[in-house]
Design brief:
alpha/beta; TIM Barrel; 11 helices; about 15% strand
C-alpha cells in the first residue's frame, strides 16, 4: 500500500521567526498521524530554522526548488549539494516557477536527475492551463510533462520520486478539479505513462498527489480516490489548524 504524503508549500510566506514558531506549533499536532508522511517546504531562508525546530520529529522538510549544478556562477540560486544537509524533499517544476522563472521541461529533467544524484526526493509538479483543459488536451499535455521530467531516470530511482498533479487553473484560484476528474488524470494519464515507461509494478508504487485549492472541506473528496496518494498544499498549509485537518483526513480516508 502506498503511504499517503501531504506536503505544505509555503511559497513566499512567513519570515524566519514566523516559520520556526509555526513548525514548533505544528509538530506536536501532527505527531499522532504516523501513517501519513508529512512534509513542510519553507522559503530558503527559513529551511535551517525549520529543520532545527523539527529535529527529533518524523516531519520532513523540503525545499521549494533548486538549481541542477552543484556550484558555480549562478547568482541567486541554491544547489542540491547545499540542500541535502537540510532537506529530504525538493519541489521541482511548480507551475509558478515555469510561469515566472522560465522553468522548462528540460530544466525540470536536469533538476530531477541532480536531486536524485544527491539523495534528495523530488516532488515533480505537472499540470495544464485552463485553455488546455477546455480544449481536451489535459491527458496529452500532462503525460508529455511526465515523460520529459523522467527522461533518463532509472526504475530504481522512481521509488524516490513523488509526482504532484496541479492543474494550473486551480492553483490559488479557489477552483479545483473534482475528485473524480483528478483521479482520472492521475490514473489514466500520469500513472499510465509511468507504467508505459517502467512497467506496472513501478507505476503502482509511485505516489501521486493532487494540488490546487485543496482545503479541509474538499480534502476527503480527493483522498477517497484510489489513485490520489496525498496532496501538495499551498494556502491551507499556512494555518496550523487547516494543515492538521488535511493530514487527519488523509489518515482517515486512506486507513492509516
Amino acid at each position: 500500500m502506498r503511504i499517503p504524503i501531504i506536503a505544505g508549500n509555503w511559497k513566499m510566506y512567513k519570515t524566519v521567526s514566523e516559520s520556526e514558531a509555526f513548525a514548533r506549533e505544528l509538530a506536536p499536532r501532527l505527531a499522532p498521524f504516523t501513517g501519513v508522511e508529512r512534509v513542510v517546504c519553507p522559503t530558503f531562508l527559513a529551511i535551517d530554522a525549520v529543520a532545527r525546530a523539527l529535529r527529533g520529529t518524523d516531519i520532513a522538510v523540503g525545499a521549494q526548488g533548486m538549481h541542477w549544478e552543484d556550484q558555480g556562477a549562478f547568482t541567486s540560486q541554491v544547489s542540491p549539494a547545499m540542500l541535502k544537509e537540510l532537506v529530504t524533499y525538493v519541489i521541482i517544476g511548480h507551475s509558478e516557477t515555469r510561469q515566472y522563472l522560465g522553468e522548462t521541461d528540460e530544466t525540470v529533467n536536469k533538476k530531477v536527475k541532480a536531486a536524485l544524484a544527491h539523495g534528495l526526493k523530488p516532488i515533480i509538479a505537472v499540470g495544464e492551463s485552463l485553455e488546455q483543459n477546455e480544449r481536451g488536451e489535459t491527458a496529452a499535455f500532462v503525460g508529455g510533462q511526465v515523460r520529459a521530467a523522467l527522461e533518463g531516470v532509472s526504475a530504481d530511482d522512481m521509488r524516490h520520486v513523488v509526482i504532484a498533479y496541479e492543474p494550473i487553473w486551480a492553483i490559488g484560484t479557489g477552483r479545483s478539479a473534482s475528485g473524480q476528474q483528478a483521479n482520472e488524470i492521475i490514473g489514466g494519464s500520469i500513472r499510465a505513462v509511468i507504467a508505459e515507461l517502467y512497467g506496472d509494478e513501478v507505476a503502482q508504487a509511485v505516489r501521486i498527489q493532487y494540488g490546487g485549492s485543496v482545503k479541509p472541506d474538499n480534502m476527503a473528496e480527493f483522498m477517497s480516490q484510489p489513485n490520489i496518494d496525498g496532496a501538495l498544499v499551498g494556502g491551507a498549509s499556512l494555518k496550523v489548524d487547516d494543515f492538521v485537518q488535511l493530514v487527519e483526513i488523509a489518515a482517515r480516508e486512506k486507513g492509516r
